[in-house]
Here is the input.
Amino acid sequence: MTITVPAVYEGGGVLKLERPVDLKENAKVNVTIEAEPEVAPEVEDGDPTGWKAAERLMGCITEPLIASDIVDNHDRYIYRHDR
Here is the structure.
């Protein structure tokens, strides 16, 4: 039997079902979790491209080795994988 029901994760490892299900008390089940995609943060007013936010960050990295590493490995940092 397969049942699909929305649930909310609460601290301490508890999944709280949003509606009752027809299961016997203490029934053993397998749980498959499909998380809903996170909503993108809202665009800052007057900065639809994000450049104003990026300009605030420019110049924050002053250590040459760190800056060089970021330049050399930007794909790894941005996409979280190596080429």
Summary: Residues 2 and 30 are 10 Å apart (CA to CA).
